[in-house]
Design brief:
With 261 residues, this protein is mainly alpha-helical. The chain has a domain of 55 residues. 70% of the residues lie in helices and 5% in strands. It has twelve helices and two strands, in the order αββααααααααααα. The radius of gyration is 28 Å and the shape is elongated.
């Protein structure tokens, strides 16, 4: 039976006919740049988003060319092909591949890429703010590990910081929704605790104005006027474009008037 696909490419490149002592002999030549050719074809298949085909080429390099200079990158690209497929099962495989790379090549120049990708696999699986945030927490942990291990000028750092910010905001919005629930039912202690937790754990949370407003409103309703005033004031002073600025200004004036009496 005629073989086709990546396997045929390997077979075609692992034996050549050479002249030897006046006769022809079939001499296996395992390398003969087969690893390079497989790598190039795998890379092209990845560019075409033919994930399974690309993975076959890279697996051939991983399994059959232990001394190949392409082997480490092939391992990473196997993870990339699984990530590209984007299914729950594929994400599990991608995470395994990138984690294995870090275990096998902790000091490799591309270990940073593998660490970034571990974070990204969790990032892809983050759920909406009202749902379980296990993957979000894992993504934050892996991005923070990257930032702790690699210098600020690393070429991947801008992407890591951007994704970490998105993940932290997702987690912050999760806690905010819980705080809003308590606020809606006038459970002021629960609301205050949740809103403070957001600000304590993530001072750079992107929707701080919203947290300031509901925290201040909860504090005011709980009779903590002196603590509420600074939060309303911060919205007025720092978030001129906020949708809460006018309400904050009105509530601030009312609280200050009450205090002056």
């Amino acid at each position: 039976m005629m073989k086709s696909g990546p396997a045929a490419a390997v077979l075609a490149l692992t034996a050549v006919t050479v002249a030897c002592g006046g006769g022809d002999a079939q001499i296996p030549v395992p390398q003969l740049e087969a690893d390079r050719i497989l790598f190039e074809r795998g890379t092209q298949a990845m560019e075409d988003e033919n994930w399974a085909i690309a993975r076959e080429y890279f697996v051939q390099i991983r399994d059959n060319y232990p001394q190949s200079p392409f082997r480490a990158d092939a391992r990473l690209f196997i993870g990339d092909t699984y990530e590209g497929e984007g299914s729950d099962e594929a994400y599990v495989q991608a995470l395994n591949e990138f984690s294995d790379f870090l275990n096998l090549y902790p000091t490799h120049p591309r270990a940073a890429y593998a660490q970034f990708k571990v974070g990204m696999v969790h990032f892809h699986q983050m759920r909406r703010p009202e749902r379980d945030q296990t993957e979000t927490i894992s993504a934050i942990r892996e991005f923070e590990a990257f930032m702790a291990q690699y210098p600020p000028e690393h070429e991947l750092m801008p992407q890591v910081e951007e994704r970490a910010r998105e993940a932290r905001d997702r987690l912050g919005h999760h806690h905010f929704l819980v705080g809003q629930f308590y606020h809606r039912f006038e459970s002021w202690a629960g609301a205050i605790s949740r809103f403070r937790e957001i600000l304590d754990n993530d001072p750079s949370f992107s929707s701080r104005d919203e947290v300031f407003f509901f925290l201040a409103d909860s504090l005011a309703a709980a009779g903590e006027t002196a603590e509420a005033i600074p939060y309303f004031a911060r919205i007025v002073d720092e978030f001129a474009e906020s949708e809460y600025v006018e309400q904050a200004r009105m509530k601030l004036a009312a609280l200050e008037t009450t205090q002056d009496r």
